[in-house]
Backbone:
């Protein structure tokens, strides 16, 4: 998993719970990397999951809730760090349509070793008026994706009613997000 | 607190590790970036090399294509020359034959042959024009043209054709048209002739009309007929090369299918446009829209009228320079129609000698001749100090490409007559140039100080039949003397030459050599020389046997004897000039000789001009002798011998 996810996770922990909490999580989970994360590095995603679980223990907040919150935080960071992608897209749905065939293509150019989830989509029809985004990944981070989508729509000032339909096929987690626009700027 | 310090220490340690890791990763990335950059550079270099190689290959291919185009166009130009030369013979002889007393049937046959020949010539010209246009070798050369006169001239032959065919013909230049316009008359004539000959070809009843009038910003030339017309389907292909409206047309009416394409392309070169209106069975109108410029009449006064010019023809003396016997015959006979005197020169050198000896009004000059070609001769005439340096020279050649015409102009020739010689164009040429001569008559006065012709029996040279040879040159003794002198000069080394050819076993060259001596000797009244040469030619050409050396020795001794005998007779050329010789100081003569010496290896022609000028000065006998030797060496282009003689001549002055 890319270093930026870890550094942003660390930032969020420090922001929400203070430096000591981050120290405690690292001390407790003893990650192989020693917790010395950098944005340009790549680290085992299990280290992140371990920390989330430990955080849940320590705060009593459920893991999905934590991951969702982290998705919101990471999404906001993305809109600040990679503004170009958002500006050129112009709306949430346009942005989501571009993840696979544009944004992830560019990410791979910079980080050939990046392991990225797959996002396919289905345009709304008369029978199915919602836009459908299909997430597939071995990581099972649909909750993170959900947070990211919400952060994105917040950037564009749009509001969606988002429904999730999840299942597992072997190692691969599937999640279909159905997005129905409820408000826009 | 201690826990706090331990915490902070670990935190610091973590940050340090993270920084080092980030630096390592960045190093790794930048190294990878550098490697990729190098790869890109190598790739771009190899791409550049590849581009350079491809570009080079394409240039090669382009050069080859251009070269083969050049070869093609040269081939066509040469082929057209090769085709036109015999056509000159055929058409010329047929024209002459049609003037003879023939039975009606014979006359009819000759006419058909003549018409077919002219048609063939037209086809050859079409192909040549087409290939020249293809090779972009045609340039439009505009000149001021009297519009009314132009149209009446160009239409005249078509008017006659229409009359023969029993149809009407009208030509009209609108009153609003300026008297003079700037255009390339030759090319417009091609356009007009093609449109008119088509109109006449396809019209059986009714008539053909031509109209030239101002139209929009320029002028419109319209050619209308009441002929068979062109169907709508075929209108678009009328201007395509090698296509006629209908292949059956080719069978019925003939033609190359190039005419309309050439016409269109010429109109395009005029930056004009051509369009058609036609209805099947009713007739066709071609419109040519052009933007010719108007000319101020004051700047282009008309030359003399035909009437004035015609009067001159009878008194004119014309020099025809031509080596081909058939062409000589044709041109001489045609010129004989106008009762002017025609003298013949076999090559440029003889022409120069004859110009020295006689006043001529006009020179017709072939280009390709042995000894000295037409270009060289024209240059020498123009460079000479004699009065004839301004004589009109008309190139007469089967080479009619623009380059050849340009070369003729550069050599100082005034005009160009393309072979086969057309009687009307020949006449036009005579009128044009003899009028000019008349205007410049006074400059010719001192040239006419030529000796009176000698009658037979006044001169005798051993073994020379002076009477017959004098008759052949119209009693022109100085000319005969110079021809004899030249003949001896040319052939004096015959024995050595013969031995060389024999050792090489070059029977062909030897046969040609003896053939030349045979012909030349006979013309000059050297019967024995001619007969000996004829014997030897026969032996080689017919029996493939080298004649015995005694015969060659005999020929050599006859030529040696002739040289001695000739020197025993007063040289009429030198005697002729004596009265006009001017006196110059030794210093002037010496300076001039040094100048000549300096020029020999740089500009032999100018050196010769200076030397000829020097020979018009009063000189001591040994000096004259050396300089004459130098002059002869010059005509052989033997620069070493010239240098030697000039050195000797300089030494004579001390």
Residues:
């Amino acid at each position: 998993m890319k270093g930026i996810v870890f550094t942003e996770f660390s930032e969020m922990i420090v922001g929400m719970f203070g430096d000591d909490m981050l120290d405690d999580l690292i001390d407790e989970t003893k990650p192989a990397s020693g917790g010395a994360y950098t944005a340009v590095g790549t680290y085992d995603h299990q280290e992140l999951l371990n920390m989330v679980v430990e955080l849940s223990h320590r705060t009593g907040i459920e893991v999905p809730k934590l991951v969702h919150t982290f998705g919101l935080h990471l999404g906001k960071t993305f809109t600040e760090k990679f503004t170009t992608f958002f500006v050129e897209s112009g709306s949430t749905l346009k942005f989501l349509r571009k993840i696979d065939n544009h944004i992830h293509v560019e990410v791979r150019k910079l980080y050939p070793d990046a392991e990225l989830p797959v996002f396919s989509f289905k345009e709304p029809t008369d029978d199915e008026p919602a836009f459908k985004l299909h997430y597939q990944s071995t990581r099972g981070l649909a909750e993170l994706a959900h947070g990211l989508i919400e952060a994105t729509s917040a950037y564009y000032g749009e509001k969606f009613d988002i429904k999730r339909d999840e299942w597992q096929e072997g190692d691969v987690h599937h999640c279909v997000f159905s997005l129905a626009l409820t408000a826009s700027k | 607190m201690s826990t706090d310090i331990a915490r902070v220490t670990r935190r610091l340690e973590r940050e340090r590790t993270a920084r080092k890791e980030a630096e390592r990763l960045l190093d790794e990335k930048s190294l990878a970036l550098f490697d990729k950059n190098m790869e890109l550079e190598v790739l771009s270099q190899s791409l550049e090399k590849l581009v350079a190689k491809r570009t080079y290959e394409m240039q090669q291919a382009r050069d080859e294509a251009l070269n083969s185009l050049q070869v093609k166009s040269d081939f066509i130009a040469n082929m057209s020359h090769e085709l036109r030369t015999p056509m000159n013979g055929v058409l010329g002889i047929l024209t002459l034959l049609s003037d003879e007393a023939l039975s009606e049937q014979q006359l009819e046959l000759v006419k058909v042959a003549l018409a077919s020949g002219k048609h063939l010539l037209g086809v050859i010209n079409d192909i040549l024009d087409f290939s020249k246009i293809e090779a972009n070798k045609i340039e439009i050369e505009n000149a001021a043209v009297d519009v009314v006169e132009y149209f009446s001239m160009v239409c005249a032959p078509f008017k006659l054709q229409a009359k023969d065919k029993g149809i009407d013909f009208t030509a009209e230049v609108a009153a609003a048209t300026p008297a003079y316009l700037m255009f390339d008359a030759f090319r417009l004539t091609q356009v007009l002739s093609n449109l008119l000959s088509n109109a006449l070809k396809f019209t059986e009843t009714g008539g053909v009309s031509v109209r030239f009038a101002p139209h929009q910003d320029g002028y419109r030339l319209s050619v209308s007929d009441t002929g068979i017309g062109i169907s709508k389907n075929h209108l678009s292909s009328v201007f395509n090369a090698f296509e006629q409206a209908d292949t059956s047309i080719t069978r019925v009416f003939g033609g190359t299918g190039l005419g309309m394409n050439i016409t269109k392309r010429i109109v395009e070169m005029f930056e004009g446009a051509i369009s058609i209106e036609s209805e099947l069975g009713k007739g066709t109108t071609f419109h040519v829209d052009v933007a010719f410029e108007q000319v101020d009449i004051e700047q282009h006064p008309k030359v003399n009228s035909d009437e004035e010019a015609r009067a001159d023809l009878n008194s004119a003396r014309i020099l025809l320079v031509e080596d081909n016997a058939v062409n000589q015959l044709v041109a001489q006979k045609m010129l004989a129609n106008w009762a002017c005197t025609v003298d013949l020169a076999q090559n440029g050198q003889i022409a120069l000698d004859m110009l020295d000896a006689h006043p001529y009004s006009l020179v017709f000059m072939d280009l390709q001749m042995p000894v000295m070609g037409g270009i060289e001769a024209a240059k020498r005439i123009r460079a000479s100090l004699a009065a004839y340096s301004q004589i009109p020279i008309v190139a007469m050649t089967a080479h009619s490409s623009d380059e050849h015409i340009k070369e003729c102009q550069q050599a100082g020739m005034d005009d160009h007559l393309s072979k086969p010689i057309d009687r009307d164009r020949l006449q036009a040429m005579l009128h044009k140039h003899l009028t000019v001569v008349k205007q410049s008559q006074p400059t010719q006065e001192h040239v006419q100080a030529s000796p009176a012709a000698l009658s037979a029996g006044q001169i005798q040279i051993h073994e020379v039949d002076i009477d017959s040879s004098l008759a052949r040159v119209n009693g022109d003794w100085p000319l005969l003397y110079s021809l004899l002198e030249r003949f001896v000069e040319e052939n004096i080394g015959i024995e050595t030459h013969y031995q060389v050819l024999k050792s090489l076993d070059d029977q062909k060259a030897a046969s040609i050599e003896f053939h030349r001596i045979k012909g030349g000797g006979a013309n000059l009244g050297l019967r024995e020389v001619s007969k000996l040469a004829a014997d030897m030619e026969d032996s080689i050409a017919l029996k493939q046997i080298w004649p015995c050396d005694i015969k060659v020795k005999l020929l050599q001794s006859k030529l040696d004897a002739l040289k001695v005998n000739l020197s025993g007779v007063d040289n009429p050329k030198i005697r002729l000039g004596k009265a006009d010789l001017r006196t110059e100081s030794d210093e002037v003569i010496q300076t001039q000789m040094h100048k000549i010496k300096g020029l020999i290896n740089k500009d032999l022609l100018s050196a010769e001009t200076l030397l000829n000028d020097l020979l018009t000065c009063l000189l001591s006998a040994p000096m004259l002798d050396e300089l004459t030797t130098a002059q002869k060496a010059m005509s052989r282009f033997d620069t070493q011998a010239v240098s030697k003689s000039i050195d000797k001549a300089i030494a004579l002055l001390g």
Notes: Residues 108 and 114 of chain A are 6 Å apart (CA to CA). The interface with chain B takes residues 19-20, 23, 26-27, 34-41 of chain A (CB under 8 Å).
